[in-house]
Specification:
Blueprint: H1 4-10, E1 20-23, H2 29-40, E2 44-49, H3 52-63, E3 72-75, H4 83-96, E4 102-105, H5 121-146, E5 153-157, H6 170-189, E6 196-201, H7 208-213, H8 228-238, E7 249-251
Parallel strand pairs: 1-2, 1-4, 2-3, 4-5, 5-6, 6-7
Helix pairs in contact: 2-8, 4-5, 5-6
């Protein structure tokens, strides 16, 4: 684990100009908040999600700041997209962008919170696909564009439940264990080049997923997706300040 607070404070004036960043889950929660934040720091953002209406809303919020570069939209449903859809997306990006400097995986689903004995196989499969298989395929498809960057950064969003299996967290916890492993493997496979791969565990965040998992929780005591402590590790890892940081699992709080 690295001391993110030290690095974040040291690099609080980060600028992301000339960087192109692809963010999944840009319709809500951390994905949307990070899209707005990185656009305000000068990055060109590719907003990805399954809801065209919500992506357009994020797009319009970014465009309301005249100093921001107009973002692009990549409509992609991680649950239903086939392999061809991912590689068609890759071809489109290569035609329209010089490179991708950052790929951030924020999209994810919770699934059921039931005992393994009662867990529905179809729900298990859906959660594993959206949270683990789809990020794998998307990362693989975007490798050609990432390789065109001098210092590409891939960030996976992890969880408190990615290191200790707890009762009733089923497929979500298993998928996040897998996410941590995928991140470590990619980092190790690329330790000879400039690509860096890391995980961020944002901790408790006031999102729709958190509300579904803990409906009785006092939301006022939980940090919002826009909170600087939540977004700072993502911004840091997307910047050139973290060029030598790879293979880490970072707690945001």
């Amino acid at each position: 684990m690295i001391n993110t607070q030290f690095n974040i404070q040291k690099n609080k004036d980060i600028n992301l100009s000339n960087k192109t960043i692809f963010i999944t889950g840009a319709t809500d929660g951390i994905g949307k908040a990070l899209s707005l934040k990185t656009a305000n720091l000068g990055a060109k953002i590719i907003l990805s999600g399954r809801s065209k209406k919500k992506l357009e809303s994020t797009h319009d919020e970014i465009r309301s700041n005249k100093d921001c570069i107009a973002p692009s939209i990549a409509l992609l449903d991680l649950e239903t997209a086939d392999v061809e859809s991912y590689f068609n997306l890759s071809e489109t990006i290569l035609k329209n962008f010089d490179k991708i400097d950052g790929l951030v995986h924020c999209a994810g689903i919770l699934g059921d919170r039931t005992p393994i004995e009662q867990y529905k196989p179809e729900v298990w499969q859906r959660v594993m696909h959206v949270n683990l298989t789809a990020p794998f395929v998307l990362t693989q498809a975007l490798f050609p564009a990432l390789r065109l960057s001098n210092n590409p950064s891939i960030i996976f969003t992890s969880s408190d439940y990615a290191k200790n299996g707890k009762a009733f967290w089923g497929a979500y916890s298993v998928s996040k264990f897998g996410t941590e492993s995928l991140s470590q493997i990619l980092a190790n496979e690329n330790d000879h080049n400039s690509m860096r791969v890391n995980c961020i565990n944002p901790g408790p965040v006031n999102t729709k997923m958190r509300l579904a998992a803990f409906p009785a929780e006092n939301k006022e005591k939980i940090k919002s997706p826009e909170d600087k402590d939540i977004l700072a590790p993502y911004v840091y890892l997307l910047s050139d300040a973290s060029i030598n940081v790879s293979g880490k699992s970072i707690n945001a709080q």
